[in-house]
Design brief:
This protein is an alpha/beta fold and 300 residues long. 45% of the residues lie in helices and 14% in strands. Strand 5 (221-227), helix 9 (232-245) and strand 6 (249-253) form a beta-alpha-beta unit. The protein binds guanosine-5'-diphosphate (GDP).
């Protein structure tokens, strides 16, 4: 996530050229409003000092610290029922992989709502959380198979439907199964869809409504998976998915690649949607809650 590295290289030992700086900040995926604010702050300061790249980095860091929530937000939990997490996004962003990674992460977190035998009601409850998956990507048989491989590896149960089945009906069934088994978490992996296709977005709204009939609080989290490498496009995806579904967070994937991470800041800045998790590789453990302090520390 060293997304200011190229900026530092570009301006090292040079006076600041405003236009060049603006372009560089936008290339770092910080978004236009934030870039404008940073440049304005620096321009106001220039009257009394000669600016260098150090001042720019400091201003960027301060602005980011102002925008990002200082503490990671924990998963919102259902009370005594399965916590439902809906995973949405466009094709290829890493939804299925992130669903598996999240399942693995939650399994390792302890604090199951199911008391172990002989438990006298101490809180927080110990034990390994019970996680179930719903393969609600019924468009692609390969997606169901892909999730199934992960499910077997993680030893979690996966509810699957027929190829082409209604994803809302499948999520309904999956919820009932999760409730029967007193599962702690149900993660629903949905089909990838272009945020511009209104009929597919309507289908996701139906999934959401259906889950809400089973538990008014469900889905407790609606997480959009975005690929950090897609930069500004991730922002438009977030806009569309948020207006259709009211997202509760982002999973930003592929931060191990060319993704600069600025998109985390731009989406929080424009839409107020926090990044909840980051993906940093193809392995099951390449996944962690997003930590703004760490992000700031790693800026350079
Ligand atoms: P989906 O179509 O959104 O479900 O995307 P997939 O989960 O199938 O992921 C698409 C590709 O991206 C796969 O090859 C994944 O291994 C890869 N991928 C997912 N997350 C990450 C990540 O954080 N880093 C890297 N390098 N690859 C990832």
């Amino acid at each position: 996530m060293n997304f200011l590295r190229s900026l530092a290289d570009q301006f090292a030992g040079k006076p600041i050229d405003w236009e060049e700086l603006e372009e560089a900040l936008i290339r770092a995926d910080l978004g236009v409003p934030m870039t404008t604010r940073i440049v304005k702050t620096l321009q106001e300061r220039e009257a009394w000092s000669v600016l260098g790249i150090g001042d720019v980095i400091k201003a960027v860091r301060e602005e980011i610290a102002r925008i990002l929530p200082p503490e990671p937000t924990p998963i919102r939990r259902a009370n005594g029922k399965p916590t439902v997490i809906l995973i949405v996004g466009v094709n290829g962003t890493g939804k299925t992989t992130s669903t598996a990674k999240l399942a693995h992460y939650l399994q390792g977190r302890g604090g199951s709502r199911k008391p172990p035998a002989g438990d006298l009601g101490q809180s927080p409850l110990p034990g390994r959380p019970h996680v179930m998956l719903a393969a609600a990507d019924t468009f692609r048989a390969a997606a169901i198979e892909q999730l199934d491989i992960w499910a077997k590896r993680l030893a979690v149960e996966m509810i699957r439907g027929q190829y082409g089945a209604d994803p809302a009906a499948l999520c309904y069934e999956a919820y009932e199964a999760a409730a029967r088994q007193e599962s702690d978490f149900l993660i629903c992996d949905t089909a990838g869809r272009q945020h511009t296709k209104t009929n597919l977005m309507a289908e996701l709204q139906k999934v959401k409504r259906t889950l809400g009939k089973l538990d008014p609080g469900a889905p407790h989290e609606t997480l959009l998976v975005v690929d950090a490498a897609t930069g500004g496009n991730a922002l438009s995806q977030a806009r569309e998915f948020h207006s259709a579904l009211t997202l509760t967070g982002l999973v930003v994937t592929k931060l191990d690649g060319s993704g600069k991470g600025g998109i985390v800041v731009a989406i929080q800045d424009e839409l107020g949607i926090p990044t909840r998790f980051v993906g940093t590789g193809e392995n099951i453990d390449d996944f962690a809650p997003f930590d703004a302090r760490e992000f700031l520390a790693n800026i350079l």
